[in-house]
Structures are given as C-alpha cells and as structure tokens.
TrEMBL record:
Pfam families tied to this protein: DegT_DnrJ_EryC1
UniProt entry keywords in alphabetical sequence: Aminotransferase, Pyridoxal phosphate, Transferase
Cofactor: pyridoxal 5'-phosphate
A GO molecular-function descriptor: transaminase activity
GO biological process, one term: polysaccharide biosynthetic process
Family the UniProt entry places it in: Belongs to the DegT/DnrJ/EryC1 family. L-glutamine:2-deoxy-scyllo-inosose/scyllo-inosose aminotransferase subfamily.
Protein name: DegT/DnrJ/EryC1/StrS aminotransferase
Organism listed in the record: Streptomyces populi
Transmembrane segments: none
InterPro entries: DegT/StrS_aminotransferase, PyrdxlP-dep_Trfase, PyrdxlP-dep_Trfase_major, PyrdxlP-dep_Trfase_small
Length: 220
C-alpha cells in the first residue's frame, strides 16, 4: 500500500514502536525511513500529540495500529493527516462474533472488580478485549517478569504482549525518547479473558494474582 501510494526513498513514515515489527519492516522495504512515535498509555495506540511532535516536511504517511481490542484516537489522527497531507493507514485486529466479544467483556468486568495489586485496563466504549492487559507496577520489568512466573506457577497462563519495543531491535535502534512505550513494555501482562473460561478458572486467576500482593522482587 505504501508503494502503491508512491511512498519511498526520501519519505518518512510514522509508526508505533510498541509491537508489530512487521510494520517497520514494510516501511523499510518500501524504501522509506521509519520514524517512531510514542503511545497513549491507556489504549497502547499512537498518541496524536506524540505523532504531531515527530512530523517533518519529509513525513509522507502514518500507520496506526489498534491494540488489544482498543482503537486509536482516529478523529485526532485523521485531523493530523488532513492538515499535513499524510497517507493514513490502519492495521486492526481480526473481528470476533458479537457473542464472543460479549463473553470477553463479561469476564473482563469480573476481573476489573476483583483484581488488586495490578492496574486493570482502561475500559471505554468499544473495547473488545482481544487481550486483557494489566500493568504490574513497581520497578519495571523485573517486577513484571517475577509476577508472571509466580502466576504461572499457580496454574494461570499469562503472556508478555511486547517483550522488546521495535526501536530497541537490531536494525531499528533509534536514540529516541518513548517513555510510555518503554514503560508499557516493562509493565504489561496479558491475562486470560477467553469466553470459554469457567467461573472456577476466573476465580483461580483472581486468587493467583491477589495472593502475590502486587509487587515481587527478582531472585538473585
């Protein structure tokens, strides 16, 4: 799509660094330069203010990634695109049937009301909970990783959604300030929220997380 729109050598394309290395790869393959912008801490999508801060006369396009069932602030991002004459591309997530989304929301509401020691995700209209992503506060990644190991030891599957931001990967390393991206990579953990989970399984998730008291120090 970038090539078809004439984006290539000499152009810059703004993308998020929180996940989706394939997007940065596509920009490079088109011959353009990748420019990273920070994310909104609630949605994990591009922050319009951060995007505006990195736009230059060479900026030709903006690639928006919708994350974990939340959507980016498309009204503001479209406005930026119009003001700066940018190509705006979106990458969403696979759509699920309405009944499946309703089941996820029901289980997310259950977790929202019972979890402590972690920060539950911001809800908001339209959240489909493709992933139920919590924050493990504290001193960053050591706390989150220790928490994840302890939760798994209690029989609850969990995963780190983004282990390394794209701007820290070989080939894309940039000396840029992306504090919300870095913080999200260090603190986020995805807990089960699938519609097939039973009440007992949901109780196990809550029990495992709450038993840890929130913060864990790494073993040395």
């Amino acid at each position: 799509m970038l090539r078809a729109a004439g984006v290539g050598a000499g152009d810059e394309v703004v993308v998020p660094a929180f996940g989706n290395v394939e997007v940065a790869d596509a920009v490079t393959e088109a011959g353009a330069t990748v420019v990273f912008a920070d994310i909104d801490p609630a949605t994990y999508c591009l922050d319009p203010q951060a995007v505006e801060a990195v736009i230059t006369p060479r900026t030709a396009a903006l690639v928006v990634i919708h994350r974990f069932g939340r959507t980016a602030d498309m009204a503001r991002l479209r406005g930026l695109g119009q003001r700066h004459a940018l190509l705006l591309l979106e990458q969403g997530e696979s759509e699920a049937p309405y009944d499946e989304i309703a089941q996820r929301r029901e289980r997310a509401a259950y977790l929202d009301g019972r979890l402590n020691g972690v920060r539950t995700p911001a809800g908001g209209d339209g959240h489909t909970y493709q992933q139920y992503v919590v924050r493990v506060p504290g001193n960053g990644r050591p706390d989150r990783d220790a928490f994840a190991r302890a939760v798994r030891a209690r029989g609850v599957e969990c995963r780190v959604p983004v282990k390394t931001p794209v701007h820290r990967l070989p080939g894309f390393r940039r000396d840029v300030q992306l504090p919300e991206t870095e913080r999200a990579a260090d603190e986020t953990l995805s807990l089960p929220v699938d519609g097939t989970l039973t009440k007992r399984e949901m109780q196990r998730i809550v029990s495992a997380c709450n038993a840890l008291g929130g913060l864990l120090q790494p073993a040395f």
